[in-house]
Amino acid sequence: MEASIMDGTTMGCGSVCGLSTVVNPISLARIVMEKTPHIYLAFNAAEAFARDQGVETMDPSHFITEENLERLGQAKEANRVQAMEGQPPIDDNSRTGTVGCVAVDLSGNLASATSTGGVVNKMAGRIGDTPIIGAGTYANTLCAVSATGKGEAIIRHTVARDVAALVEHRGLSLQEAAERVVAAVPRGSFGLVAVSGAGEVTMPFNTAGMFRACAADSGYSEVGIWPDADGDAGGES
């Protein structure tokens, strides 16, 4: 498992990957951000740090389910890597994937966090986009972004940072920036959720569908899986 978190106000961030015992990887990523001089901890060292910090852990067998063993068997038989990220369910056995969150408070402070189990049948040592700041996760004083999908494509296109850069350096609205980045990545690759300091929300994707939702203290909320009439989801909150 892997996760990362970023505070847009301070530019503080923390990332972890290669975890097999930590129950909530995002909690460990936050401790890395708040209690260490570093950003990234991985594999055995990250596991040891989790135990030192009293983070909840379980035996790796706790995370193994019959459904995912079945998926692994199917992927091995087909000799392929099976994405767990960003795709709507085909059946009950595929309801797994990346969990991403972006938030803005009443003062306009922004934050982003992302956590995932990666892909099925991945090579040992493979690291996806989720813990890489600027790829799957990014936040600054203008916007916060969290991505999901094919990690290699997200890394190649540094999608989370690219959205923020278009807002910062080109003066685009958040929705324009996000749509431009999504359109530049091969179809079927990924989607993202993003929010601006002013409360603009956008959730574009170029896959068949993407689980997504947003809510505001005004009472506004939105939930979706498939494209809306505009092929996107987003608005002011």
What is the strand arrangement across the widest sheet? 3-2-1-5-4
What Rg do the Cα atoms give?
17 Å
What is the subunit arrangement here? Answer: single chain
- Characterize the largest beta sheet: strand count, sense, and whether it forms a barrel: 5 strands, mixed
Mean pLDDT: 90
Percentage of residues assigned to helices? 25-40%
Number of strands: 12
Q: Which features characterize this protein?
A:
27% helix, five-stranded antiparallel β-sheet, five-stranded mixed β-sheet, 237 residues, single chain, alpha+beta
What does this structure look like?
The structure is a single chain. This protein has helices at 25-35, 43-52, 66-78, 151-156, 159-170, 174-184; strands spanning 2-7, 13-17, 40-42, 99-104, 110-116, 137-139, 143-149, 190-196, 200-202, 212-215, 221-224, 234-236. By secondary structure, the chain is an alpha+beta fold. The strands form three sheets. The chain has a five-stranded mixed beta sheet with strand order 3-2-1-5-4. It has a five-stranded antiparallel beta sheet with strand order 6-7-8-9-12. The chain starts with a strand and ends with a strand. 45% of the residues are buried.
Would you spell out the secondary-structure blueprint of this structure?
Elements: E1 2-7, E2 13-17, H1 25-35, E3 40-42, H2 43-52, H3 66-78, E4 99-104, E5 110-116, E6 137-139, E7 143-149, H4 151-156, H5 159-170, H6 174-184, E8 190-196, E9 200-202, E10 212-215, E11 221-224, E12 234-236
Parallel strand pairs: 2-3
Antiparallel strand pairs: 1-2, 1-5, 4-5, 6-7, 7-8, 8-9, 9-12, 10-11
Helix pairs in contact: 5-6
